[in-house]
Design a protein that fits this description.
Blueprint (H helix, E strand, L loop, with lengths): L1 E14 L5 E2 L2 E2 L6 E3 L6 H14 L4 H4 L12 H14 L3 E10 L9 H12 L6 E6 L5 H4 L3 E12 L2
Parallel strand pairs: 5-6
Antiparallel strand pairs: 1-4, 1-7, 2-3, 5-7
The chain binds magnesium ion (MG).
Length: 161
């Protein structure tokens, strides 16, 4: 059995007129949302890159280019589900994912359990195997100024030799 880990990172700009969708959960109390070609779910995108990285299968931009109209307003949770299936086709089983979302406001903690439930369902894991953490920029940088939201993630996958 071989085990591998991968990392992922993503960031999106906060703008008025967009929904804020993080980890497959729409945050109703947000007054702005993330701009992007898809639903701009920064956490799902970081996790997708962590999974693709662990399996040595490239990155999200290769599989879902933002120049492709098929992915306009795409539900990133469905893309995450598809990527987990893609890994399975290559013999990889997802074992664990962990992530940190960097967001100044609103506070995302109340939505943690729902994010874990949706993300774990998308990749076929128990919710306990998907950890989601939250941090702020303490007023510094693009996160701290509320210009955007970032996420970083790691994923562990296994394959029989
Ligand atoms: Mg993205």
């Amino acid at each position: 059995m071989s085990a591998r880990a991968g990392i992922g990172w993503d960031s999106h700009r906060l703008e008025e007129g967009h929904r804020l969708v993080i980890g497959g959960v729409e945050i109703p109390e947000a007054d702005r949302g993330l701009a992007g070609h898809s639903d701009a779910d920064v956490l799902a995108h970081a996790l997708i890159d962590a999974l693709l990285g662990a399996a040595g299968l490239g990155d999200i931009g290769q599989h879902y280019p933002d120049t492709d109209e098929r992915w306009r307003d795409a539900d990133s949770l469905e893309l995450l589900r598809e990527v987990a299936g893609f890994l399975a086709e290559h013999g990889w089983t997802v074992r664990h994912m962990d992530a940190t979302v960097l967001c100044e406001a609103p506070r995302l903690g109340p939505h943690r359990d729902e994010m874990r439930a949706r993300l774990s369902d998308a990749v076929g894991l128990a919710a306990l195997e998907v950890n989601v953490k939250f941090s702020t920029g303490e007023g510094m940088g693009f996160v701290g100024r509320g210009e955007g939201v970032a996420a970083l993630a790691v994923a562990t996958v296994e394959r029989g030799d």
